[in-house]
């Protein structure tokens, strides 16, 4: 939700937008189920690809880096267009270099820190593919999305995140002539933080004004966070934008700093974090939803008229564990109706009681989110937070605020737990496993008992 800079793999590697031939790109298989009713599901042969930002990018002629510890190589990358023409994006050795594996059919395991020949890789971000060259697009209105998550080995400060971003189906291959790699190589990422650390946007390198790991452009698009979590905290959050496709931003539109509530996207979103909403005994180690064991997470996108073309009116959440369906926790706050789902009314009341800017409502709330939900790409990731140490998810935030003020406490973690240097040194072995993805009609992917 307050995601800004992603911890990138090894400083020495980089990307381009041509295709490199050093390593053959072979997408790990990750089949999913598509359901029409309980017991009526079909398997779909999907796979995953690694985001372009993690890949080695080198000169098309030879193997010199286009980007290194000192930033962009000025010879290969004097400007964005030339750089995209000069640099190639290579295939990924998923297991060895990035710690990405498929322990069983339909399961994906992401290792937090992986030692490799180049040093180490930190975190990863992958996208579900429908074919070799196209992302699998999801139309979520009047549908539900379900998966199993094992967060037992994800401590405070980490985020195992499963979400949808409104990326181009082909990664921007058709829209941007400078992009020759496309979805096969994980190009075209965007999210509601309009991240500036994306090295290639719209088929051009983001070299202009590159400083402290970010360029002057950002990559904006609507984002629906299904699952942002570790073993101590969790939130699900819609983040609508004023735009309904991947859009390169510049200046105010990026919503950086003081422009936060003037940009193209709702960076705060309207989150539902059970701990933050007043139930501190619901989620965690040994709690009602017990993070020492795998959890099934169900998210339903309800429309006003119960059809796929209606307006998004609510986002419901259920958990299933040990065969038992556990409804989401109820909010407990004076001024907020006791509800266990997200609606525009919930968002308005929450923002009012917590004293937060309701930019979510300003740019159209759930109806705006719904417009984007018809063509979303599934993102599976694990990351640590170089901006604010994941305090917005599992500790207190903003840091200077009184933790007893409504909305400030998000979880039991210490604010320092998520400092990247600390968590990378203390928990390199951390990992998350995502499995059994199911998608389909409301109430078709799990059994209500
Ligand atoms: C920068 O790129 C040029 C042209 O590809 C190459 O000759 C040079 O070795 C590169 N420099 C570094 C430090 O990689
Ligand atoms: C789904 O199940 C819930 C709980 O049993 C029920 O309240 C709801 O009406 C069902 N929705 C649909 C569309 O069947």
TrEMBL record:
Q: Which InterPro entries match?
A: ConA-like_dom_sf (IPR013320), Glyco_hydro_7 (IPR001722), Glyco_hydro_7_sf (IPR037019)
Q: Which residues form a coiled coil?
A: none
- The top EC class, named as a word, is hydrolase
**Reactions accelerated catalytically:** Hydrolysis of (1->4)-beta-D-glucosidic linkages in cellulose and cellotetraose, releasing cellobiose from the non-reducing ends of the chains; Endohydrolysis of (1->4)-beta-D-glucosidic linkages in cellulose, lichenin and cereal beta-D-glucans
Keyword Transferase carried by entry: no
Q: Keyword check for Glycoprotein, yes or no.
A: yes
Q: Which UniProt keywords apply?
A: Carbohydrate metabolism, Cellulose degradation, Glycoprotein, Glycosidase, Hydrolase, Polysaccharide degradation, Signal
List the EC numbers from the record.
3.2.1.-
Concerning Gene3D superfamilies, the annotation shows:
Glycoside hydrolase, family 7, domain
Signal sequence, start to end: 1-16
* Any single biological process term in GO: cellulose catabolic process
User: Looking at the record's lineage, which domain of life comes first?
Assistant: Eukaryota
- Offer an example of a GO molecular function term for this protein: cellulose 1,4-beta-cellobiosidase activity
The family note in this entry says: Belongs to the glycosyl hydrolase 7 (cellulase C) family.
Name recorded for this polypeptide? Glucanase
Instruction: Tell me what organism the protein belongs to.
Output: Lasiosphaeris hirsuta
Q: What is the lineage of its organism?
A: Eukaryota, Fungi, Dikarya, Ascomycota, Pezizomycotina
């Amino acid at each position: 939700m307050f995601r800004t800079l992603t911890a990138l793999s090894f400083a020495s590697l980089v990307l381009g937008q041509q295709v490199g031939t050093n390593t053959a790109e072979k997408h790990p298989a990750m089949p999913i189920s598509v359901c029409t009713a309980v017991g009526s599901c079909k398997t779909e042969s999907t796979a995953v690809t690694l985001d372009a930002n993690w890949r080695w990018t080198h000169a098309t002629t030879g193997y010199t880096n286009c980007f290194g510890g000192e930033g962009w190589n000025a010879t290969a990358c004097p400007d964005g267009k030339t750089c995209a023409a000069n640099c190639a994006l290579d295939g990924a050795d998923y297991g060895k270099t990035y710690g990405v594996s498929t322990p069983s059919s339909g399961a994906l395991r992401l290792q937090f820190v992986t030692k490799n020949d180049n040093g180490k890789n930190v975190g990863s971000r992958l996208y579900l593919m429908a074919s070799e060259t196209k992302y699998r697009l999801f139309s979520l209105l009047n549908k539900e999305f379900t998966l199993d998550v094992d967060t037992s080995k994800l401590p405070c400060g980490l985020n195992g995140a499963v979400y949808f971003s409104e990326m181009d189906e082909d990664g921007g291959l058709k829209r941007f002539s400078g992009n020759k790699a496309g979805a096969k190589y994980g190009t075209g990422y965007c999210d509601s933080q309009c991240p500036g650390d994306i090295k290639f946007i719209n088929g051009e390198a983001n070299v202009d004004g590159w400083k402290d790991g970010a360029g002057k452009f950002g990559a904006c698009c609507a984002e629906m966070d299904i699952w942002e979590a570790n073993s101590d905290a969790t939130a699900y959050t819609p983040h609508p934008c004023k735009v309904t496709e991947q859009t390169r931003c510049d200046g105010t539109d990026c919503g950086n700093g003081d422009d936060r509530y003037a940009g193209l996207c709702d960076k705060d979103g309207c989150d539902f974090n059970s701990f933050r909403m007043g139930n501190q005994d619901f989620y965690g180690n040994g709690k009602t939803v017990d993070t020492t064991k795998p959890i099934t997470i169900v998210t339903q996108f309800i429309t006003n008229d119960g059809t796929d073309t209606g307006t998004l009116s609510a986002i419901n959440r259920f958990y299933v564990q040990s065969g038992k369906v556990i409804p989401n926790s109820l909010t407990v706050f004076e001024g907020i109706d006791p509800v266990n789902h997200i609606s525009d009314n919930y968002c308005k009341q929450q923002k009012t009681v917590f004293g937060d800017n309701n930019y979510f409502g300003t740019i159209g709330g759930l109806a705006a989110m719904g417009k984007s939900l018809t063509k979303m790409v599934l993102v599976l990731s694990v990351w640590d937070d170089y901006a604010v140490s994941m305090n917005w998810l599992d500790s207190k935030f903003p840091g200077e605020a009184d933790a007893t003020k409504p909305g400030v406490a998000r979880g039991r973690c210490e604010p320092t737990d998520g400092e990247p240097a600390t968590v990378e040194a203390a928990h390199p072995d951390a990992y998350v496993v995502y499995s059994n993805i199911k998608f389909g009609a409301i109430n078709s992917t799990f059994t209500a008992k």
